[in-house]
Structures are given as C-alpha cells and as structure tokens.
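I hope you will forgive my troubling you with a question about protein structure. Could you please explain, in whatever detail you think fit, how the structure tokens follow from the sequence? Thank you for your consideration; the sequence and its tokens are set out here.
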Amino acid sequence: MWRGPRAARKFAVMALIALAFAVLQGSPRTALAARALRPMPDARPAPVAVGPGFPIVRDQPYVIAHRAPIHLRVRPTLYLPLALWRPVAVRRVPAERLAWRDSEPLAIAEGWTETSFDCNQPGRHLDLELVSGRVQIDFIEVVFENGDCQVIDFANRSHAPGVYSLLDLGEVRTVDHVRVIARARSDMARIALMLRR
C-alpha cells in the first residue's frame, strides 16, 4: 500500500498518463491526425532511386521515405512500355472481391514522399483510391513477381478524392510490391491501393 506525499505524487502522475492514453485510444480521428501530420523524425529527403532503363526521362524529386524500409523480394529487371495514366473513375469493389488493400496518410509538411506497398498477392486489376484530400502523384511503379515492372506516369498532376482504375493486368498476376511517389496538396490526405481477385 502506497503512503506519504511521494506516493501520492506517483499515483497522480500515473493517473494522468492513464487518462491521456484513454483519450487517445478513444479517438481514432485524433490518432490518425497525429500520424498524418507528423513527418518521420529521422527522415531526410533523398533522390528517387531508379534502375537502368527506367522509362520516365525527367528530373525526379527528392523524397522522404514513408514507413520503415521493407525487404523487397523482387527488383525490377524489365521495364514494360510506359503507361500514361488517365483518370477513369470506377465503383468501389466489395471487400470480398479484393485480394489485397493498403493505405497510407500523406502530410503537406513532408513534401514529396516515397511509399513502398508490400503486396505479394495475385490479382487481375489494380485500383487507386484517393481517400481524402488532394494528392499530387509523380509516378506509380508496379513490380511483378517475375521482375517485370510497369511504370505509370501521372505527370505530376493533382487529383481529387475518388476511386480510379490504375492498371488492368489482363490475367492473374502476382504483384510483389507497388511504389508510389506522391505528395499531399491538402490536409488529411490519404492514398489507398486495391488489388481485385
């Protein structure tokens, strides 16, 4: 049993910590806002790394790497002909028809970011969802399990929220990972990728 003024102070500090934790846990929006608006503390902008034969010929932005670096099982070995993205809106696919979905918040303060989405799932079609806010995209790189790489050029255009067709794979193919070079152009921006079965 705790006794004396020192024990009372310890109890008060622990109670305040527990209260703060409960408030944050009870407010997903607050937690999301904190994550979305806080750049990674050790992140420093670095040039976008591209391999020999990368099909976009223009200066690439300096980017902050989002997320902890993932171990990429496959590196691009063959760049397919460059695809120019056209914003074609599509209906949201029900969850039971998705093989994979992942999303990431973007913060204006970070500027250009690079996010590698670890997929490693087979599917037929990739969709892009701009969940909230406006997002400017430089390019998206889809790397398949055999090393084929499809680069989709967004030409640095900004886009409003919506669900868009990103890439029709034509047949069932395993997507190893997807790399997105983008930046938020408004607060609380979030980008998502979905692979249809």
Notes: Residues 114 and 181 are 5 Å apart (CA to CA).
